[in-house]
Amino acid sequence: MPSLELLATCTPPCNTRTWLSAPHPHLPIIATACSDKTVRVYSLQNFQQQSTISGGHKRSIRSCAWKPNSKGESVLATGSFDASAGIWRRWEEGGGVRKPAEIDFTTGLAGGDGEEDEEDEWRFAVILDGHDSEIKSLAFAPTAPLLATCSRDKSVWIWEELEDDNFETVAVLQDHEGDVKCVAWHPKEELLASGSYDDNIRLWREDVDDWACCALLTGHEGTVWWVEFEDANNIYALGSSEDLNDTQKDYVDTRLKAGPRLISCSDDMTIRTWRHVPKDKPELPAGQIKTTSIWKNRDFEEEWVEEARLPQVHERPVYCVSWSRKTGRVASTGSDGKIVVYEERWRSTPDTKSNDASGDVQMAGGAPGPDMEDITAKKLSGSDGHKGGVTEWVVVAEAENTHDVFEVNHVIWAPRADKGKRFEDEEVLISTGDDGEVKVWTFDT
Amino acid sequence: MDLDKDNANPTILNPSDLPSRRAVNPSHKPSSDGGSGLFDGLVTDFSAYHDPFAPPSASSDSEDEDVEEIDEQEVFDLISTISDPEHPLSLGSLAVVSLPDIEIVPPRSPKSRISTVRVLVTPTITHCSLATVIGLGVRVRLEQSLPPRFRVDVRIKEGTHSTGDAVNKQLGDKERVAAAMENGTLVGVIRKMLSTCQ
Fold first, then answer.
1. Are B47 and B41 in contact (CB under 8 A)?
2. Which one of A40, A158, A382, A432 is at 20 to 30 Å from A405 when CA atoms are compared?
3. What is the ipTM of this complex?
4. What domain range includes position B174?
5. Cβ separation of A405 and B60 shorter than 8 Å?
6. Which of A271, A260, A263 is nearest to A310 (CA)?
7. What is the pTM assigned to this prediction?
8. Residue B14 falls within a domain, yes or no?
9. Considering the domain boundaries, does residue B31 fall inside one?
10. What does the pLDDT look like over A1-58, one tens digit per residue?
11. How far apart are CA A241 and CA A147, in angstroms?
């Protein structure tokens, strides 16, 4: 049975609540957003604090995000309860990418004490004002110079970086009816997802000249605390495409057409995955009446269906999920202090065909409502007729009281960078809690 | 904040009618962390919970704490003395909080150490505009006074408030509560409400 083992606790800890830790896009460091108005940067090689960002925000820093593809200079965005976002810059050592595995950290942090001071200089670059109240989350787009921020003011803002430190507001999206708790970008497209206090998820794209909502994902029965897309290559986490039966091949085909799925977690204690149903395959099964939708008349609008519900292990609100880009595993955490790891597998049924038939019967009976008791056995269908339920999610590891008796606000997969690294592409889990601690866990299979 | 009284003539209970065990146990102390640190935590966002210099293994949930039982009466004692934001009266004497509406739920499994305290608040009138503030005061009071192994769920008693669900959602949202505790005006109101607690 795989297990989660504590590898290290980053030191020194923050003495108040910590909200979130973001791994750097290529350096072995993480940035932790703290309620003491600072960001602490810890090394993933020796788990010591490397630098601190302070003095910019008047209230708690709720979230932070690294700019992807930065070369020679690290760029961090911070979102605060003071309603502003900050952009911070720091030169990277040697002005370029370093090789984490070869740095000998026994002599000091990242190559000696002298450089450390020099390196420890975060420069405040620009402040982004506009939100009316607390910023909850922010994210840089991986495919374009765009930054998304969201707030208790119910809006999502999209900022375009025209040149260094010149950010222009390109959209203010106000369709949510409550605080917007989280934003996440699609890995390959300029598609943004947001989760809200109104219990809904919305997807946003640029339509001709304006950004607009292209999909509304309903179903959660509580605040949506976190959304995240999977990696574009996650389909391969299911293993080789050889030896698949027809149903499985069909499903692989569906997934490849649909692209990355979205995962969400909520105050309702559930974790759900959502899949795009591309329009160009109007293979409506006989007898199924397409549900009326306010979106139906516009090509711009997209259909997304709830594909699966992960086994419900959490006993309190789930605050965060992280979908590994390397292994396709999902980790979750929340108010109950547990960290749970899930894996997606082909559902092992002796006769896939008969299972399939029962799914068709359900579909013919109208839109089957998701069942809280046994969702994994249900088949949710999109208008393309393809179903979930070909795969199943299983719990592969679970740890309790991960931050003593405190709530855990965030968990995320990151590349392992310490000397104990056992294999190429090994990942660790990083958890961030109300006790002010950032902990690093190995997943032992 | 509008302090016009929503309910100018509330029903008031005689203090001697309120549930108490002080006669039985006069040395009983309702607050486990004393009065002095109470308001510090309001401003610094619950930092009072965590002692950075404590050894990690013993942090905040020592053996002693596990032994120390906390019952509904003790929770009642902690919150009944909170002042109503619009009357010079305690939540206990206004029957906004009452002993039967407090429930302590033990850990769900033997491995878990997390208990839950559920408090139902009964506003004096169904359209009381200060229900959220009262609920927040109760939540803050308990989060500051109880050991961190307790999760505090404060809700409006069903059917006693016109917008109960909305108020409940706010009170259950840790992010909103954390942000509220960085809002100077609100902190001032809560501090005043808690100033009558021992």
1. yes
2. A40
3. 0.83
4. 70-104+124-198
5. yes
6. A271
7. 0.83
8. no
9. no
10. 899 999 999 999 999 999 999 999 999 999 999 999 999 999 999 999 999 999 999 9
11. 37
